[in-house]
Structure to design on (337 residues):
């Protein structure tokens, strides 16, 4: 991991892409994935599903939203991922007084040259941890929209590229906690997956106590993948085959969210694309170059729960009500043979 330096993430990106364009054998890709999985699993114990969804997000070129109560490992997971990748990394602690310029950067007058010089903010990194994102105001949250959707920011009429790769891992506390602001719908739609970590089982929690006896295990992690490795794996995801019947299955599920009697806001076209790409990434993680129905079914909830809005929901229960509706939709949508 390159640390919290001020170097723009886009510097050297052409070399990253050029290195990634050389195709790797499937066995080598599998070895890279296993190496990353083991590194993350050494600090986040007893949560294989969460690790799988984190890797899906990375390989599918998406962004990850981790929502849960304090103290269950949200920031730990984000730090472990950043330390496992030899990429530039910045952590941003979101607070109510944070301004958009604190994320993007600002132009400063340079007296010797008589010109304004752009000073990049912490958003210019390949891996960005947006810690407690829902403690910032909607105005500041909206500063991430262009960066997350287009992987660029526009400053003073100039577009500045981010990455590759470019990954935002955001953590947030449940809405009923004091001092939080609900994320706007447009912001939620930029996150590929929304996951909850939950409390570990007793055996895993006991191991956590043992691991932390002499310090923080995450501080001893070393990078196991280079930026070019990540881009190569992301390129492999796009080559995964998707049968036409599975395209129809994705659209059947998404369309059902728009016509369901208990849904006020259904899934968008971006949501359908996200489910498509996430299923491809899951297939790669399973060692396949083709998607099967279970790849899609297992990702419907983490991909769509934050993208649909149930009628008459309470703010803190949004995910739970959406999960119930999606479970019902999955139960009555025919699965391709």
């Amino acid at each position: 991991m390159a640390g919290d330096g001020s170097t723009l993430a886009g510097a050297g990106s052409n070399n990253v892409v050029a290195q990634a364009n050389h195709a790797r054998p499937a066995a080598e890709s599998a070895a890279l994935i296993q190496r990353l999985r083991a590194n993350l699993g050494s600090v986040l114990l007893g949560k294989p599903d969460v690790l799988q969804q984190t890797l899906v997000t990375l390989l599918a070129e998406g962004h990850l939203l981790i929502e849960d109560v304090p103290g269950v490992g949200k920031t730990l997971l984000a730090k472990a991922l950043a330390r496992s990748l030899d990429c530039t990394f910045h952590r941003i602690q979101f607070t109510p007084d944070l301004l958009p310029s604190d994320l993007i950067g600002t132009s400063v007058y340079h007296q010797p040259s008589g010109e304004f010089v752009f000073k990049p903010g912490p958003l210019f990194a390949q891996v960005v941890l947006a810690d407690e994102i829902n403690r910032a105001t909607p105005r500041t949250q909206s500063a991430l929209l262009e960066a997350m959707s287009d992987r660029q920011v526009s400053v003073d009429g100039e577009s500045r590229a981010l990455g590759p790769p470019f990954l935002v891992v955001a953590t947030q506390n449940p809405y009923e906690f004091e001092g939080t602001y609900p994320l706007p719908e447009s912001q939620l739609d930029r996150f590929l997956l929304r996951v909850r970590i939950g409390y570990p089982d007793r055996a895993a929690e006991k191991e956590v106590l043992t691991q932390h006896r002499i310090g923080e295990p995450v501080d001893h992690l070393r990078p196991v993948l280079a930026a070019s490795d990540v881009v190569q794996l992301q390129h492999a995801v796009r080559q995964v085959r998707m049968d036409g019947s599975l395209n129809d299955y994705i659209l059947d599920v998404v369309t059902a969210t728009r016509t369901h009697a208990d849904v006020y806001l259904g899934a968008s076209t971006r949501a359908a694309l996200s489910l498509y790409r996430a299923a491809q990434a899951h297939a790669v993680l399973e060692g396949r170059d083709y998607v099967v129905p279970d790849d899609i079914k297992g990702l419907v909830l983490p991909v769509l729960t934050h993208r649909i809005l149930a009628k008459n929901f309470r703010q803190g229960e949004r995910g739970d009500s959406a999960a119930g509706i999606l479970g019902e939709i999955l139960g009555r949508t025919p699965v391709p043979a």
